[in-house]
Amino acid sequence: MALLEIENLHASIDDKPILKGLTLAVEAGKVHAIMGPNGSGKSTLSAVIAGRPGYRITEGTIRYRGEDITGMDPEKRAQAGIFLSFQHPVEIPGVAFTTFLKSAINAQRKARGEGEIEITEFLKKIKQAARDLEIPDAMLKRALNTGFSGGEKKRAEVLQMTVLEPTLMILDELDSGLDIDALRIAAEGVNRLRSPERGFLCITHYQRLLDLIVPDVVHILVDGRIQRTGDPSLALELEERGYGDFIPAQAGQ
Amino acid sequence: MGTSFPLRQGSKSDMTSPAHSSRSAEALPPFLYPLPADTEPDWLKDLRARAFDIYHAHGLPTRRHEAWRYTDLSFLAETPFTPSPSVTLDRNGLESAEILSFSAPRIVLVNGHFCEHLSNLSALELGISIQGFDASPPDSVRSALERGSLSRALDTFPMAALNTALFQSGLVITVEPGVAIRTPIHVVSLALSSHGPHFSVPRIVVHLQKGASLSLVESLGSLGAEPTFANSVTSVLLDEGAHLSTTRLVRERPDSSRIETTLADLGPDARYDNLTLVFGGRLVRNEVYATLNGAGAHAEVRGIYGARTGEHVDNTIFVDHVAPQATSGQLFKGVLGGTGRAVFQGRINVGRGASGTDGQQLHKAMLLSRGAEVDIKPELYIYNDDVACSHGATVGELDEDALFYLQSRGLTREVARSLLVEAFLSDMLEVVSHAPLREALESSINTWKQDVLSAEHPS
Q1: Minimal Cα–Cα distance from B377 to chain A, Å?
Q2: Ramachandran area for residue A16 (φ above 0: left; ψ -120 to 50: alpha; else beta)
Q3: What is the 3-state secondary structure (H, E, C) of A155-191?
Q4: How do beta strands B341-350 and B373-382 pair?
Q5: Is domain A4-243 annotated with CATH 3.40.50.300?
Q6: Which GO terms describe its molecular function (chain A) (predicted)?
């Protein structure tokens, strides 16, 4: 059984179909990359896996560890171990980053029937992760994502991911808005989390992210469906030839 | 004036008789009784006579009055209120009131009457005088009550005029020149219904002499099974360089109402900070009128409020720039749930002589439900070219993107909503430097927040 199994998924927003029969499986221990042009449905895919409201699923199922999560509340999915790294992390003034992260950990622990995290253990974890991601202490004291640069926001996403210890990670364009140094730091953070129990879905436009987070499987998403699945050489092929060859006849018109 | 001071029957002995029977045939407007005894000094009789005439001519404000267009008082006239008797309260009674809990010298007023046994003034510093009065105010308040701007204000504020015509009990706080009082003073003023619905007219007078400073904390609320209506006035007189900081929590019971009028006069370089929190009550109007009479004066009027189903909160602020180089700020944030109603009317007046004025105003409301409603009326009247004034208002809902972000980390929707409401209000308490007070205020806001959020989305 794969960690994540998506079958014939149709999703629309404002009655406009975006995903049109998408089928995909992500195995534990593997990094799956999804590449696709603008408007192919990449962000919709990450949103519906995480349970974002506003999308209508008209057909198909999303299963996580064998359980149908298609209609599940987003917090329940997070508590079950799904983490979405946002393409555009939301700025929330007035909510302190550290306080927020502690609340999130405790909400997830509570859902698992565990007690609250010891404050010393929490601080140790967050400090270690911040050091690895070259995040200054001052940033931890600021409001959530507020006034963070593009690179800081993405590193803060990886920090949350590190501390929350999810099982399935969806990285929605981790590379957007990052310079090469920040991208390297963020990618190293992701690579540290790779383990036999964990699966990754890495959504990107560009090969350069996949040089740093080397995938096991590459999928090409065009017009709401996976058009091709292959090994990492598929990404290189794409880089050379563009998406033209993968656009189905009726969508290219 | 003064010679025609109206005397009517039953000022003392009829205090507990039903509202309508003690009125004379010529039909006085509601609440205009009982009148004080005729033994007061002439200056006070003159003032009361003028106040009586103003309210008598004006009557209880209706929505036809511009300043009351969004706040309907008609239910007050329909409730059989009688003047509150002089009642006392024991310690258990006081503890059942939702007052701020922090350690400070405390003065308790019940229906305006000073309750010595509940007050604790043993730790008062030198240079401050606190005096409760129970029949007529002492002569020491004369300068505050007769001060031009405070006296003229009665023409504009009929409910303050009503209070001035009637008040017999309250509190006078005076700080001597140059004295900085370090410990905050906590005034608890409660309206208590004992035999049916009661109305009360407490008066507080605060006079800070030249260079004095004081931090005043007020817990205003109500007790008892029946409705109460407090029509309360605070007169604030700040001499040159004086600094008063007032932090006020209003938590009325669901069927109780309060019209709280603050009339402040600021001398040169004086500073007045007013932060008023309103969380609960059928109708609460927080009306602040600050006159910047001295060059370099600064008034900072702020507020946080919440309104739920059955509640109406009205903040009406009027900052009058008379002197040059004075500055003022108005900042209000409110959260509305259910079918809660709120009103914000913020006025900045810049007179001909008020060059170099800086006046700012901002009101932000967050609506948690579609049934809630807020009316906003900003007004700038500027009669001088050399000014910097601004006003702004926003009305928003909880940000769905932010809610999803928080939920995607495992926080329940309820916790996420609570965090966002807290975040919306979080910067408002930064001005409260006294940590125990700030914590007490936070705890009041949290209690209210949990109530309103669970009412929106019962789990």
Answers
A1: 27
A2: beta
A3: HHHHHHHHHHCCCEEEEECCCCCCCHHHHHHHHHHHH
A4: parallel
A5: yes
A6: ATP binding; ATP hydrolysis activity
pTM of the model: 0.89
Residue count of chain B, please give it: 459
On whether residue B28 sits in a domain, the answer given is: no
Flag whether B195 is in a domain: yes
What is the C-alpha radius of gyration for chain A, rounded to an integer number of angstroms?
Answer: 18
- Assess contact for B136 and B168: CB atoms under 8 A: yes
Length reported for chain A = 253
Residues in B whose CB is inside 8 Å of some CB of A read 399-402, 404-413, 415-416, 419-420, 422-427
At residue A142, the 3 state secondary structure works out as coil
Does residue B30 have a cis peptide bond before it, meaning omega lies within 30 degrees of 0?
A: no
Whether residue B37 lies inside any domain: the answer is no
Two structure tokens written together for B349: 């007046």
The sign one gets for the Cα dihedral B70, B74, B79, B82 is positive
Evaluate whether B357 touches B326 at the Cβ level (below 8 Å). yes
What is the pLDDT at residue A253? 41
Is B289 in the same domain as B406? no
Indicate if the pLDDT at residue A61 is higher than 50.
yes
Q: Which of B399, B410, B424 lies closest to A108 in CB terms?
A: B410
* Whether residues B289 and B417 fall in one domain: no
Phi-psi region of B449 (alpha: psi -120 to 50; beta: other; left: phi over 0): alpha
pLDDT digits (tens, 9 = 90+) for B371-409: 999 999 999 999 999 999 999 999 999 999 999 999 999
Output the pLDDT for position A250.
Answer: 57
For an interface test with A, which of B335, B397, B407, B426 has the most A Cβ atoms less than 10 Å from its Cβ?
B407
The verdict on residue B356 lying in a domain is no
User: Which range marks the domain in which residue B217 is found?
Assistant: 42-294
Which of B262, B294, B326 marks a domain boundary? B294
What does the mean pLDDT of chain B come to? 92
**Segments of B252-372 assigned E as strands:** 257-266, 271-279, 283-292, 298-307, 312-321, 327-336, 341-350, 357-367
Model confidence at B14: pLDDT above 70: no
What phi, psi does B22 have (nearest 5°)?
-85, 0
